Amino acid sequence: MKKILAILLSLLSCGFLSACSAEKTQPDTPDTETVWEMVSEAYIYAFPLVLTDATKTLSTNTDGTMTGRAPINQFNHAKKLADASFRTVVTPNVDTVYSQAWLDISTEPMVYVLPETDRFCNVQLLDAWTNTAAVLDKAGAYAIALPGWEGELPDGVTRVDVPTATMWSITRTVLSGNEDLPNVYAIQEQMQLLPLSAYVQGGEYAAPQGAYKEENDFVPVNKVLSMTPAEFFNTANALMQVNPPADADKELLKKLSAINVGAGKTFDAALLGEGAAERWTQMLQGLRATLAADGAKYAQKLGQWVYYGKPIGDFGTEYTYRAMVALVGLGANTVDVAIYPKTAVDETGAALTGEKKYTLHFETLPPTLEGGFWSVTAYGEDDFLIDNSIDRYCINDRSDFKLNADGTLDIILSKDAPEDTSNWLPVSDGEFHLFMRIYVPDMTALDSWQPPVIREQ
């Protein structure tokens, strides 16, 4: 009997110790505060991915008959420059005409044919995480493919590997005012976008018509910000399966796996604890301030002007900066392609207002490399173009302005037209601000360049 009892005690002891050992190997469940810290970090990390998908959903939500949209893998060519009536996006560009396309290369590469042009015509390829994966700036045929695609390309087709199945193609074609639009249309008509299989067969391709769904007619940023935690993170988890995170993200994703954020995982809102809805709302309400505070360290001073510098457009692990740029201006260029200095004050630091008259003085014009250009555009307090009597919204290197005798340039900033309007940039009644766009900037020369100053007359 004693022998049997000893065996039973031994078995129980081994079972108990095994259970203890197993228990110790299980990962600790984070406490609620730690969970919320990770939720905030995960939201900032995944926000650009989810916003890009929402933007794609809206932009491709068409049966092919809606202006400003196009089905997947098809061009959406803009046909005019923005003016004071334009209210689709804030701070619209009036230098270039856009040709956009949302690509799905999950099954095969797409071939983009960029024609020869007599002007700046630049194709930015953004991945699903809002990084610039490639820039096409020379005429030719390009096969946009995933790295794992195995196949042969026809002679004369250049392979461009991109990291995600979802890609956003933004082509900017510069023009000199509305009278130049027919020349831009001719360039657009020569652009081609078609599956590789169709290109190989001679280029005959009938693009699908697409479909419209009322539930997909939304404002992308509002759609994303209105998602519940489960909706947001499970959307992100699904998107990560077809648009894999970068290798540099592995360390963060290992950490976020504790709250089931990652490719193919299922997020459970129960781990958020009590009062989750209220805390989620508070987190989102503070999001813009959080992002702006972190993004400020990337601001570059250029005299009285400020622009966002590297690593904009190619963010690496700067996740907060990436989220901030996605929130305020999805689709940013890298600094070698363009910089966008902004100012809302004169040389004394006083806010710019239409109640005063100013001179914007250039000692020398903005430094650009071959093919580059520059402009100065005025916007009202609402971030839109300012209505005026001569329909002029910017002055640029293609404008018919008059230089001073010493080669300097003075642009007049005023609400009312001066006697000679050659150098007049109309502004609003109230406060206004300026964006200086410098495409293909000479970044070396920029270090010693004297930026323009705004002086009250």
TrEMBL record:
| Lineage: superkingdom | Bacteria
Q: Which residues form the DUF1254 domain?
A: 72-194
Does the record carry Secreted as a key word?
Answer: no
Q: Where does the UniProt annotation place the signal sequence?
A: 1-21
* Record-linked InterPro entries: DUF1214 (IPR010621), DUF1214_C_sf (IPR037049), DUF1254 (IPR010679), DUF1254_sf (IPR037050)
Would the keyword Membrane be found if you checked this record's keyword annotation?
A: no
Q: Which PROSITE patterns does the UniProt entry name for this protein?
A: PROKAR_LIPOPROTEIN
Q: Which UniProt keywords apply?
A: Signal
Q: Where is the DUF1214 domain?
A: 338-442
**Entry protein name:** DUF1254 domain-containing protein
What is the originating organism of this protein? Roseburia intestinalis L1-82
Q: Tell me the organism's taxonomic lineage.
A: Bacteria, Bacillati, Bacillota, Clostridia, Lachnospirales
